Amino acid sequence: MTFKRIATIVILSITLVGAIPFISQAERDPLASEKPETALSMKVDTKKLSGINLFIARMYNEDRVLYATTVTLVMAVLGTTLAFITDLVLKALGLEVSKISHRE
Amino acid sequence: MNIINIHLPVAGIEFSAVLLVLIGFCVGVLGGFFGVGGGWMITPALNIFGFHMAFAIGTPLANIFGQSIGAVRKHHRMGNIDWKLGLVSIVTSVFGVEIGSRVIIAMEKAGDVGVIVRWCYIFLLSVLGVYMMYDYFVIHPRLVKLAEDEAANGARSGTARVMTISDKLHRINIPPMISFPASGVEGVSLWVILIVFLVTGFLSGFMGVGGGFIILPVLVYLIGLPTTIAVGTSLVTVLFTAAYGCFTYALKGRVEVLAAFIMLIGASVGAQIGATAVKYIKGYGIRLLFAIMVILAGFSVLTEQFYKTSGKPLFQTLAGITLMGTALAMSVMIIGRLVIEERKNRVKAE
To answer: What is the span of the domain harbouring residue B152?
Structure first.
């Protein structure tokens, strides 16, 4: 891959990403504002929440240690599971990995 | 046009799920391929698209932790991880991080240290990027030419040498000496290893970054690891620091779990693809892409600095767009190369 080709792809991608905010977020246009949209609150307002959102918000409000442990465990389990599934798909596509030679 | 907006209960905002998956995917590809976490990219991206900065820092750590598990497993299967060196780097870096963070806290009492940190960041990224470019365009061709000359003159192969930084460090004979057989590093002073990782940790703590982008060049240029082993070993460090970061930030209420969960869907797939691509791209190819990424990241921090001094939001937007654009470009190139090489292999096999 030549340096010129890499430079072209980088410039095109930066232009493309530059267009994303104007395409997908046009209604609220967060780029127009210097301030982030939300203020940081240590308690979540649960009045309008239901289902899984309510479950998460309650855990966040009531037991932060449980919340931190759950987040860490969920990330570990989900990361492992998704990696395993992706691995199977890649294998099916012929992209199996084994020991490689460390060439420079 | 809002693309599948969902409500994020902890951050209290509406956010595009597709954008989260896309950000996660790009970071996953880069993480698996370069052995970095990618927090430097996700944090400004989330912040620009509407996340409060506190969540924009904590949430990526949860995502990086999840994506790194699969990537580490894959690199381990490819023989890309030096566990002994990884362990030494983690333990030593912890002390460095502690010293770095204490220095920052002490400096904060004296005034705003943000400017100093940002300029350090810009300087470090620029030096790293420029040196890696120099290595790719000057040192590497010189090595190749030497090897070709030797081959033409019938000399023994492997005698061509250009003194690199790691060669010089390996010559320091202060006992005790330590070896890392998995990396092909035979006999290097333990003091050199400790000082190198102490400084690396210090920089991570001082600049408040995970350190993946510092560890990779350190392993390659200072310790002398083959690039692919440096990628895998760097990922081990990223995995452990991100696991700790995930827990501690969640404890402080700074992780938006639903966003991390959705990003992880893209990131896990991306990390597997990125790690697989290492099999097909030569070490120097990885170094060139990394150098370009580091220079553009430096440019992004520079524009962020302009934003802080001028107050014009355009600079902040430009910084985010540069980072995201770079990440997207790198992901496209890595996946493209993976597909091309795999096709070539199939044609050969047929």
So the answer is: 5-349
